[in-house]
Amino acid sequence: MTKYGYVSGWLQDSVIKQDDFESQAKILLSMGIPYDHCFADVFRQNNKERYQLFKFLTTVAQEGDVLVVPTLTCLYSNIRELCCLMYIVEDTGIIIQSSDMDLSSDSDSSDWIIVSQLAHLDYVHYLRYKRASKAVKRVKHETTLNVGGRHKRVITPKYRQAYEYLQSHTYAATQLKFRLSKSTLYRIKRQIDNKNKQPISKVQSYDASRGDVQ
User: Fold this and answer.
1) Dihedral sign for Cα atoms in the order 104, 105, 109, 114
2) Which of 7, 10, 62, 89 is buried most, with the most CB atoms less than 10 Å from its CB?
3) DSSP reduced 3-state for 204
4) What is the pLDDT of residues 48-93, one digit of tens each?
5) Beta strands, E only, the chain
6) C-alpha distances out from residue 161 to 105, 109, 157, 164, Å
7) Residue 37 DSSP class
8) In the 3-class helix/strand/coil scheme, how is 57-109 assigned residue by residue?
9) 3-class DSSP state for residue 10?
10) What does pTM read for this prediction?
């Protein structure tokens, strides 16, 4: 088991008024961590990447090693980075120690953090699944629509002319004249014939002077 140290933060700057890096570095060195076992990331402008931290986690850290930090917030800036960190800590088997918490395999607080973050990840996965499911349904619906923007079941004036022409001509002649497929002509004929077969409701009225139904 080897102890390492890590610190991150902003240097004192005339524009960025946060200078927590220097104070946290002093705290880390006062914990007795050898200088050559310390890793540090200095934030500059909008760059808050933790290159040295992930270098340690991916190339140096061994199972059972201890990473000492002044505070746990040195390790992450947002929920996404914390989630990633939790998985790496679990995979490598290292122990994270800080002045505000002991994050190890036998720590009740570490179990609470890991469980809460996993629950958050599950919820994020659920939202992504619902979004993907809606996208698939939308694509399937769009494929059922006619590319031209007009529903293919609408009887256009051209289709009606073809139907009238078909009454006294063959399918082949109608195809040639209107440039329609035989299957389309079948559909047009069937659709118009079915519509013509539907009963037409007539409103009847009673003429009192005649005494009959009109």
Assistant:
1) positive
2) 7
3) coil
4) 888 999 899 888 988 888 888 887 778 888 767 777 787 788 788 8
5) 3-10, 38-43, 66-69, 95-98, 102-103, 206-207, 212-213
6) 81, 79, 6, 5
7) G
8) HHHHCCCCCEEEECCHHHCCCCHHHHHHHHHHHHHHCCEEEECCCEECCCCHH
9) strand
10) 0.47
